[in-house]
Structure formats: C-alpha cells, structure tokens
C-alpha cells in the first residue's frame, strides 16, 4: 500500500491562516463536540515519552504520534517530533501521512486566534479599535502566533514580545521583521497595558502577577498541558471570565485552572467551551479579564489534516 505523504511545506501551503481558522469554526458550528474527543495517551519512551492523540469523525479519523525528548534541544534537535496518520472512518484504511510538527505549529495558533477573535466580538463595550498584543515566549509557537495574529488581527497596531532569553527574543524579532511583521521587545510592566496577552511558553510557573491584568484584557494560556504546569496564576483565574477548549480536557490537563479551583467547583461553574464560544454563548463581564485556556486536542488536528488531504498536494 502506497500512502501520500504531506511534508511540512505541503501542510503549510494547504493551511493559510484564514483557511485554518475557518475550518475550525465551521467544524464547531456543524456539530463537532470537543467534550466527546478522545483523551491523549502518554507512554514512557527511552529518554522521554510517547504522546498519542487519536480521534474519530464521520468521514475521517486520525492519530497524531509524537515523541517528547527533553534532552534534544541540547543536541540541536527538536524536543517534540511526530507524524500524523489520516484514516478512512468506514474501512479504517490508512489514507495519508503528514508532518505532525507542522500540523501542530499551525493548528495551535489557529485555535488560539479563533478563541481570541470570538472573545473580542463578545466584549461588552465593543472590540478595542487598536488592540495592543503582548506574547510571552520566543519559540516556534510564539513565532507562529505572531504570524497568525498579523493576518487575523489586522486592527492590532502594537506587537510586543517578552521572553526569558534575550538572544532568542532578538532572533524572533529579526525573523519576523524579514517577513514584514514589526515586533518590539517588551518589559514585564507592560502586562497592565496590553489588550491581548498570549502565553506560548514551556514555563512551569506563572509568568506574571494576575492582579496586574486590566479589566477587559484577553489572556490566552496555551503553552502548557498537565496538572503540574501553569503559565497564569490563581489570582488571574479567579477574577476572570474563563473559556476552555473542552471542559473534560481541562479537568484532565489544565494546570492553569485546577489549582485555582477544584474540579468539582469548575463542574458547578461550567465555563464556556470553544463550541459555546462560536455559537455566541459567552457573556463577558466588563469588569473582568477574559481568560482562554487550551491544552491542544486531537479533533483540531483532524480538522487540519482533512483540509490538507482534500486540498493539498502530497507525494
């Protein structure tokens, strides 16, 4: 059996930002329920772990198989590597494989910007006319979130980045400048002045004081998953309107949320999920920040892989 393979370039070509976000939006409006998605599976591997993300759909199903090797960056290799396998749901026959890293690199910002755009639209006082965007992190997710925001938030006039390693921040800025995207280094004090804050880091501890975030500010924490990892503190969580990718996934993996409130508390609150968000069910409070927390889900990968398979060009 010969399978088509979509390399990173083919995945990227098939998924411009508007296409990726529209596909996710349409999937949610047409009945994809994030609460029914399969949980990810972790398994030990030499020098790290395997991460498997299976999911099913009416026409296609899929499996993203990743390896996580914490020592790889010191070797000049990527920490996370993987491949995506697309499957026919009726026959369970494999249809195609594609670059799992590039699929994730596009899927994650697309989901974040879908959430942010919907949260902006739900602002009780109307969307800010020239929002200031601050991104924490200087890795591939920060890079791609800036790229996505440049296309999907055309009204934003100020892009700033804050990272722990100045050399990586400067490298990120240089790369984006070559692409015509103007980004400047930020100071920690700018948290209180930002309209949109995106957290795209591997930090295990909160990045800033949640009390410093202004009412009405949108914060998206998407860089980490696992109950022992967090990018935002309990102060921000408790004072915010909260939106999650999926409530079931959040209870399993959202370390940003669970230390702030117990699972039973969250279950009584029932925060809006992405499906609620695109269906206009979020009611924001003008006196509160609005926090989106995402851990990354398999249904999103399947939506992206479907677009690549049906519209892309593999080999």
UniProtKB/TrEMBL annotation:
The organism's place on the tree of life at top rank: Bacteria
Q: Name one GO cellular component term.
A: cytoplasm
Q: Which InterPro entries match?
A: NAD(P)-bd_dom_sf (IPR036291), ODC_Mu_crystall (IPR003462), ODC_N (IPR023401)
Q: Which Pfam families match?
A: OCD_Mu_crystall
PANTHER family documented for this protein: KETIMINE REDUCTASE MU-CRYSTALLIN
What is this protein identified as? Crystallin
Q: Which organism is it from?
A: Psychromicrobium lacuslunae
């Amino acid at each position: 059996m010969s399978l088509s393979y979509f390399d990173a370039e083919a995945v990227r070509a098939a998924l411009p930002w508007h296409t990726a976000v529209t596909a996710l939006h349409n999937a949610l409006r047409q009945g994809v329920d994030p609460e029914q998605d399969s949980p990810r599976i972790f398994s030990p591997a030499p020098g790290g772990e395997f991460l498997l993300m299976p999911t099913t759909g009416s026409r296609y199903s899929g499996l993203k198989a990743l390896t996580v090797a914490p020592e790889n960056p010191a070797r000049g290799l990527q920490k996370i590597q993987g491949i995506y396998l697309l499957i026919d749901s009726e026959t369970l026959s494999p249809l195609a494989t594609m670059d799992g890293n590039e699929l994730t690199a596009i899927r994650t910002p697309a989901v974040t910007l879908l959430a942010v755009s919907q949260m902006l639209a739900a602002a009780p006082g109307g969307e800010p006319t020239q929002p200031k965007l601050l991104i924490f992190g200087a890795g591939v997710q920060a890079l791609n979130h800036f790229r996505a925001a440049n296309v999907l938030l055309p009204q934003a006039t100020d892009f700033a980045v804050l990272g722990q390693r100045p050399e990586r921040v400067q490298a990120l800025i240089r790369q984006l400048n070559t692409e015509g995207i103007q980004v400047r280094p930020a100071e920690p004090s700018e948290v209180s002045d930002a309209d949109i804050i995106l957290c795209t880091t591997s930090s295990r501890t909160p990045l800033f004081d949640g009390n410093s975030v202004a009412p009405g500010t949108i914060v998206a924490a998407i860089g980490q998953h696992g109950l022992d990892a967090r990018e935002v503190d309990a102060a921000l969580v408790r004072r915010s309107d909260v939106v999650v990718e999926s409530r079931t996934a959040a209870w399993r993996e959202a370390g940003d949320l669970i230390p702030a409130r117990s699972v039973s508390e969250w279950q009584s609150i029932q925060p809006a999920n992405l499906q609620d968000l695109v269906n206009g069910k979020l009611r924001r409070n003008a006196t509160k920040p609005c926090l989106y927390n995402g851990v990354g889900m398999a249904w999103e990968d399947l939506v992206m892989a479907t677009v690549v398979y049906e519209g892309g060009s593999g080999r």
